[in-house]
Every structure is written in structure tokens, then in C-alpha cells.
């Protein structure tokens, strides 16, 4: 069975950990599992200007953070955009679980 999980930006949050465990165990049981997550949004031009005016400096683009998927044998795809997730972003699957 093909199973796809759709997630927000991944991190060390507890809910992400649960999905990582489920995805890994389903994969070990022989299912084709893919995890699709969105990237964190980049700061807008307005936020950049406000940060500069307030003396906080330039806001760096968000970098991928470590998550519970690091070191797991699960196909994890991080989308290059922050969202929304469309049909084109997700491969065909028997079950799609969005959290």
C-alpha cells in the first residue's frame, strides 16, 4: 500500500515524532511510505524593512532544522515552498494523511 503523510515544517515537536515513528514502522511492514513537508516561509520584504528600521538587522532565510526524520529510513521530501500543498506536490498514493 502507498501511504503519504503531509506535514507542516518538521522539527522536534512531539506530533512530528509520532508521525516519524508511524512512517518508519509502516515502511518496515512493507508499505511504500513518503513524507512530504513544507519549508518554513521566507521573511517578506515588509518584515525585512521593519527589522532594519527597528535596528535588528537583516533577517536570514530559514535553514532546514534537525527533526525526528533525521537518521530514519523514510522517504522524506521537503517542498521548496512554504505552502499550500497541491496535488502536484504529492505523488499518487492509496492513503494520504495530512496533519
What's this model, at a glance?
The chain has 99 residues and is of the alpha/beta class. It has 2 helices and 4 strands; from the N terminus they run E-H-E-H-E-E. Strand 1 (2-7), helix 1 and strand 2 (32-37) form a beta-alpha-beta unit.
Textual characterization of the structure:
- This protein has 99 residues and is of the alpha/beta class.
- 24% of the residues lie in helices and 20% in strands.
- The chain is built from two helices and four strands.
- The chain has helices at 14-28, 45-53, and strands spanning 2-7, 32-37, 75-78, 95-98.
- The protein has a four-stranded parallel beta sheet, covered by helices on one side.
- Helix 2 links the parallel strand 2 (32-37) and strand 3.
- The longest helix is centred in the first third of the chain and has 15 residues, at 14-28.
- The mean pLDDT is 90.
Amino acid at each position: 500500500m502507498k501511504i503519504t503523510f503531509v506535514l507542516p515544517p518538521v522539527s522536534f515537536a512531539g506530533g512530528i515524532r509520532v508521525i516519524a515513528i508511524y512512517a518508519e514502522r509502516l515502511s518496515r511492514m512493507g508499505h511504500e511510505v513518503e513524507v512530504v513537508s513544507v519549508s518554513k516561509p521566507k521573511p517578506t520584504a515588509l518584515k525585512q524593512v521593519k527589522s532594519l528600521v527597528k535596528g535588528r538587522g537583516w533577517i536570514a532565510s530559514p535553514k532546514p532544522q534537525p527533526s525526528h526524520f533525521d537518521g530514519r529510513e523514510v522517504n522524506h521530501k521537503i517542498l521548496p515552498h512554504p505552502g499550500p500543498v497541491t496535488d502536484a506536490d504529492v505523488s499518487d498514493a492509496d492513503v494520504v494523511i495530512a496533519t
